[in-house]
């Protein structure tokens, strides 16, 4: 798989595949640092703000590894050379996770460094703690995105549905459960909201994210292993 990794790196560099999204993310991160300067608890505040939109950028790596290969039929070249689909899936999933973590690190580090330049009190230990707490949630959301790309036939459909889930799912679920079903669900069951308040992660949130991660991963692999590439 090292040859595929080198080929992907060359494609990313040669075709500037990630440059636009990284530029937008870096701009938003720096802008967030300026908007929140002077806030008490700068570190947690800026990470909370970034967590509201950082998962939207997970679309880009998922599309790179699971979207375009399918739509352009280039996945056939890999399957022919590497007939064991489990190895192909593992490589693509790990590459997607790696790039997503890179996106998160770029956002957090750039905003915290700008905060330091603005003479804000930046707690890097707290930032690391929050990031550690967020990892299970990020992994869960990553495989949710992968699941959409391997399930849906058209890339725009995956883009739209994933974006709606990121932006609206928790709010709509809370609205329906409280107003229509009259259920007072704890905020810990809403994963995207928990992502924004990850200074401490509850046992319930951890269990839900882990179970969802396993489910999304299994479904993604199951569909990928049986998908017909024409």
UniProtKB/TrEMBL annotation:
Keyword Transmembrane helix: yes
Transmembrane residue ranges: 18-37, 49-67, 88-114, 134-152, 159-181, 201-224
The organism's place on the tree of life at top rank: Bacteria
Keywords recorded for this protein, A-Z: Membrane, Transmembrane, Transmembrane helix
Protein name as annotated: ABC transporter permease
Higher taxonomy: Bacteria, Bacillati, Bacillota, Bacilli, Lactobacillales
């Amino acid at each position: 798989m090292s040859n595929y990794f080198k080929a992907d790196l060359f494609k990313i560099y040669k075709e500037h595949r990630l440059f636009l999204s990284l530029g937008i993310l870096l701009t938003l991160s720096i802008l967030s640092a300026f908007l929140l300067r002077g806030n008490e608890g700068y570190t947690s505040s800026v990470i909370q703000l970034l967590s509201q939109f950082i998962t939207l950028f997970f679309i880009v790596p998922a599309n790179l590894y699971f979207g375009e290969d399918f739509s352009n039929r280039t996945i056939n070249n890999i399957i022919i050379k590497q007939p064991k689909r489990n190895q192909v899936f593992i490589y693509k999933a790990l590459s997607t996770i790696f790039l997503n973590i890179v996106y998160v690190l770029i956002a957090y580090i750039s905003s915290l460094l700008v905060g330091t330049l603005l003479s804000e009190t930046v707690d890097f230990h707290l930032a690391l703690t929050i990031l550690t707490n967020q990892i299970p949630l990020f992994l869960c959301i990553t495989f949710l995105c992968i699941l959409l790309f391997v399930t849906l036939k058209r890339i725009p459909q995956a883009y739209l549905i994933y974006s709606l889930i990121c932006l609206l799912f928790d709010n709509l679920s809370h609205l329906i459960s409280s107003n229509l079903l009259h259920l007072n669900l704890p905020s810990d069951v809403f994963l995207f909201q928990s992502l924004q308040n990850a200074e401490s992660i509850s046992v319930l949130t951890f269990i839900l994210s882990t179970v969802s991660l396993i489910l999304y991963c299994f479904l993604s692999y199951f569909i990928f292993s049986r998908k017909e590439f024409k």
